[in-house]
Design brief:
The chain has 10 helices and 31 strands. It is of the alpha/beta class. It folds into 3 domains: 294 residues, no CATH class; 93 residues, Immunoglobulin-like (Sandwich), CATH 2.60.40; 127 residues, Immunoglobulins (Immunoglobulin-like, Sandwich). The protein has an 8-stranded mixed beta sheet with strand order 6-5-4-3-12-13-11-10, sandwiched between helices. Strands 14-22-21-16-17-18 form a 6-stranded mixed beta sheet, with no helix packed on it. It has a 5-stranded mixed beta sheet with strand order 24-31-30-26-27, with no helix packed on it. The chain is globular, with a radius of gyration of 27 Å.
C-alpha cells in the first residue's frame, strides 16, 4: 500500500471503567493490507457489518451461521425473520440500502469490496439460524465480489456452531458452547481462503505449541466518556500474539467476533482457545483480536450478542457511527466500534461533547459550534424520525420543551430540551445549511434514577443486641444526590446517638451508596426504614428485632453488607446496566 507497516496499538487513554489488573493492548508490527474479520451467529452479522462498513481497510470476512448485511434493518422483529424464515430476506433491497449508506458516507464506498475474499459456512442442521440465510449472504456478496473470491460450505450436516476437528459437541447437535466437532478445521479453511492460500495447516492431533502470548487486555481503556457496560462490552478482551510477532516480525491481523452466549461471561476463553484459531495464527504469523461482549438486559441484550438489530443505536450498521460502543484502535484502522460520534474536524468544533447524559425531568442542553456558520442556517434535527426541531432561532415542533439558543460570545448553538424523558434518548444532528448539509451529531442519554435496598427482600430479621446494616443504592443518578435522608417509621433519623451511623460513597459517576448502621439493636429499633435520595424515589425495608433462635432470613453479620455489597453491585452493574 506504500504506507509501510501498520503498528497495532490501543491508545493509552484513561478509561472510566479501567481495570487496573489488566494490561494495555501492546504495539505490534502489523501489515495494513492484511486485516480480516470473522464471526459466528451474531458475531457473523457483526463481521459482515464491519467488513462492509470499512471495506477500504478490511480485506475479507469469514461468516459462520450468519445473515446478510443490514438484514434486520434496525428491528428486533427483523432479526427474527432473518433467523427463522430466511427465504423472506430480500437481498436486492439490502443492496439498495447499502448503496444509500455509501452515497451518504455512512460506510466506505462499496468499490472497496471488489477484490476482497469471503468465506461462508452454514450447516444443513442449523436450528438457530435458517440455513437459507447462508445462501442469502452469498447472494449479497455476489453483487460486489468476483465469484472466485467467495468460498461456501453449505453441505455439511452441522448444527449452529463453529466447526472444528478436535473439540466441541457432536456436529449435528446444538452444543451449549456453540462449538461443534465436525472433523473439519473451520478456522484453517476460513483463514486460508481469506489469505489467498498457502497457509500452514496445523495437525490438531498433535497441535503446535502456542509459544506466543495470549493476553487479557482492558477494553475500558478505549471508552473515553462512557463505560464498556453502557454499550454491552465486557471490561476484558483477549488477543493472541504469535511468537514471531512478539519478536517484531511483520504479521497479519484478524478480528474474531464470538456469538451470542459465547463471550467471556458465558464460556470464559473457550471461543478463543477451542476453535483452532490460535494454532493457525501461531503457524502463520496472524495476530488475532477477540473483542468481548457481555449481556446487558437493560440495553435489550440479555444474551451477550453483538448489535445487528440496533439495541445500541439506529446507526449500528454504519462506519462513522458504528455501534455506540467502542474504539479499539489500530494506528490507521480506528473504526472498530466507537462510543463517540464521529464528527468532522473541518466543519465543527469537536471539543464539545458528543454524548450528553441527563436525569429524567431535568433540562438538557445539546451544543454544537460550527466553524464557519456565518450566513449559514443552523438547524437541529432529531435523527430517529428526521424531525426538524429548530431552524436558527425558530422552533418547528409543537413540543414546547424544545428550543434553540445561540451563544453569541462563544458562537455555539444549543438545543434545549426541558423535562427530558427516556423517550428523548437518541441522536440529534446539528446541521449547517450547505449543499450537501454538514452535521454534528450529539447523543442524548436519559436516565431514571432508582433506589434499591440491598438484599432483595422487603424484610430484614436481626437478633436483639446485634449490629444492623442497611444499604441503599441509587442507580443511574448521573450525578450524586445532593442529600440522602433516612427515616424510621416516617420520622427523620438525625443520627444524634452513639448507636447510629451513616456512610455515603460514590462507586461510579452514577452509582451512589448510603449505609445505615445501628449497633446493639433493641426492640424499639423495629419498624420501617426508608432511604430518600434527593434525586430518586424512596426505598423501604421492614426491620424485625427478634429474640431466641435465628430465622433463615436473618442478617447474620455486620461485615456482610459493607464488604460484599459494593463488589456485588459492581458485578451486577456490568451485567445488567444497560438475540441470535
Amino acid at each position: 500500500m506504500g504506507v509501510g507497516p501498520l503498528f497495532l496499538c490501543l491508545l493509552l487513554s484513561s478509561g472510566i471503567e479501567k481495570n487496573l489488573a489488566l494490561d494495555s493492548l501492546g504495539t505490534y508490527n502489523v501489515d495494513p493490507g492484511s486485516v480480516t474479520v470473522s464471526g459466528i451467529s451474531s458475531g457473523a452479522a457483526m463481521a459482515t457489518q464491519f467488513h462492509v462498513a470499512y471495506s477500504t481497510n478490511v480485506k475479507g470476512a469469514g461468516i459462520f451461521a450468519g445473515v446478510p448485511y443490514y438484514c434486520a434493518q434496525g428491528f428486533i422483529s427483523g432479526s427474527l425473520t432473518c433467523m427463522t424464515t430466511a427465504s423472506l430476506i430480500t437481498v436486492p433491497a439490502l443492496i439498495t440500502q447499502t448503496e444509500t449508506f455509501a452515497a451518504s458516507n455512512g460506510i466506505d464506498s462499496t468499490s472497496g469490496l471488489s477484490n476482497d475474499r469471503v468465506y461462508i459456512f452454514h450447516g444443513t442442521e442449523d436450528v438457530v439460524v435458517d440455513p437459507i440465510a447462508g445462501q442469502k449472504v452469498k447472494n449479497y456478496y455476489d453483487h460486489y465480489l468476483n465469484s472466485g473470491n467467495i468460498k461456501t460450505v453449505f453441505g455439511m450436516a452441522a448444527n449452529h456452531g463453529f466447526p472444528t476437528n478436535f473439540y466441541g459437541g457432536a456436529c449435528d447437535s446444538l452444543d451449549s458452547e456453540y462449538i461443534v466437532n465436525c472433523g473439519y478445521n473451520g478456522a484453517y479453511e476460513m483463514l486460508n481462503h481469506l489469505y489467498r492460500g498457502g497457509l500452514i495447516e496445523p495437525d490438531m492431533s498433535s497441535p503446535p505449541v502456542l509459544s506466543g502470548q495470549f493476553l487479557l487486555f482492558d477494553q475500558g481503556e478505549f471508552f473515553y466518556i462512557s463505560w464498556p457496560s453502557q454499550s454491552s462490552f465486557d471490561s476484558t478482551g483477549f488477543v493472541y500474539v504469535p511468537s514471531s510477532c512478539v519478536n517484531g516480525a511483520e504479521c497479519k491481523l484478524h478480528i474474531a467476533f464470538h456469538g451470542c452466549q459465547q463471550g467471556r461471561h458465558y464460556i470464559g476463553e473457550k471461543f478463543a482457545r477451542k476453535t483452532g484459531l490460535l494454532e493457525v495464527a501461531e503457524l502463520n504469523d496472524i495476530v488475532v483480536l477477540f473483542p468481548q461482549i457481555s449481556p446487558q438486559t437493560l440495553l435489550g441484550n440479555p444474551q451477550g450478542c453483538w448489535d445487528w438489530w440496533s439495541y445500541t443505536t439506529e446507526l449500528y450498521q454504519s462506519s462513522a457511527k458504528l455501534v455506540e460502543s467502542k474504539e479499539l484502535h489500530t494506528s490507521h484502522l480506528n473504526k472498530l466500534q466507537s462510543v463517540t460520534v464521529a464528527n468532522s474536524d473541518e466543519d465543527f468544533d469537536n471539543n464539545l461533547p458528543s454524548i450528553i447524559r441527563a436525569v429524567a425531568g431535568t433540562t438538557a442542553y445539546l451544543s454544537c459550534k460550527p466553524k464557519a456558520s456565518r450566513n449559514k442556517t443552523v438547524s437541529w434535527v432529531r435523527h430517529r424520525d428526521l424531525h426538524v426541531l429548530t431552524v436558527g432561532h425558530f422552533t418547528y415542533t409543537t413540543d414546547v420543551r424544545f428550543g434553540a439558543h445561540y451563544g453569541q460570545s462563544a458562537g455555539d448553538w444549543s438545543l434545549q430540551i426541558k423535562s427530558v424523558q427516556p423517550r428523548d434518548s437518541g441522536l440529534y444532528d446539528c446541521q449547517i445549511g450547505t449543499q450537501p448539509p454538514k452535521s454534528f451529531s450529539v447523543r442524548l442519554q436519559v436516565y431514571v434514577p432508582r433506589s434499591v435496598i440491598a438484599g432483595g427482600s422487603t424484610d430484614i430479621h436481626v437478633q436483639e443486641g446485634s449490629t444492623i446494616n442497611i444499604t441503599c443504592t441509587v442507580y443511574d443518578s448521573v450525578q450524586p444526590p445532593a442529600f440522602f435522608f433516612w427515616y424510621h417509621d416516617g420520622q427523620v433519623i438525625h443520627f444524634n446517638n452513639d448507636r447510629q451511623e451513616r456512610r455515603m460513597s460514590l462507586l461510579e459517576n452514577d452509582i451512589t451508596v448510603s449505609s445505615l448502621s445501628i449497633r446493639q439493636a433493641v426492640m424499639s429499633d423495629s419498624g420501617n426504614y426508608t432511604c430518600q435520595p434527593a434525586n430518586s424515589d424512596k426505598a423501604t425495608v421492614r426491620l424485625h428485632i427478634l429474640k431466641g433462635e435465628e430465622p433463615a432470613a436473618m442478617q447474620r453479620s455486620s461485615a456482610n453488607y459493607p464488604l460484599l455489597f459494593p463488589l456485588t453491585y459492581l458485578w451486577l452493574h456490568l451485567l445488567f446496566r444497560n438475540y441470535l
